[in-house]
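lol forgot to send this yesterday, sorry. struct tokens for the thing we talked abt
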């Protein structure tokens, strides 16, 4: 007979457990990517910018599911290091973002580290299991954001 999960127990809190796992996975990816001077969040931004010619701030924020203030905070070092260019802005104006040639080279440089982290995590979980988890997370995200 299977034991019923006590959803009122703190240790079964969905939010707590997802955040706990996210922190652990982020720390793992961070260790892999640190030698390139990029944090995982910044790597995601660069990879997204690398996927098309131009984004505006609102599009990228929505795509990444990131608050604009958080995106701006993560873009600053990427701009400072010459990986990203921002044009426009000011009161009511759109900010257009593009990845620079230096940024594209950075993506090429950090891709092997990202792939190594990705492979290790998927191997730990199992490919079928990860595929099912990913599908379940996407379903939950869509249902909760209606």
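and heres what i got for the seq, position by position
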């Amino acid at each position: 007979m299977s034991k019923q999960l006590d959803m009122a127990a703190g240790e079964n809190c969905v939010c707590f457990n997802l955040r706990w796992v996210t922190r652990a996975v982020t720390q793992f990816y961070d260790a892999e990517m640190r030698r390139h001077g990029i944090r995982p969040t910044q790597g995601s931004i660069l990879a997204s910018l690398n996927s098309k010619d131009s984004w505006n701030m609102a599009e990228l924020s929505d795509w990444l599911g990131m608050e604009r203030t958080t995106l701006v905070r993560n873009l600053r070092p990427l701009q400072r290091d010459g990986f990203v260019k921002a044009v426009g802005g000011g009161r009511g104006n759109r900010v257009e973002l593009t990845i620079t040639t230096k940024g594209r080279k950075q993506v090429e440089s950090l891709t092997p580290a990202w792939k190594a982290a990705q492979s290790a995590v998927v191997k730990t979980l199992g490919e079928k299991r990860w595929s099912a988890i990913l599908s379940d997370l996407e379903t939950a995200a869509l249902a909760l954001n209606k």
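The radius of gyration is 18 Å. anyway ping me if u want another try
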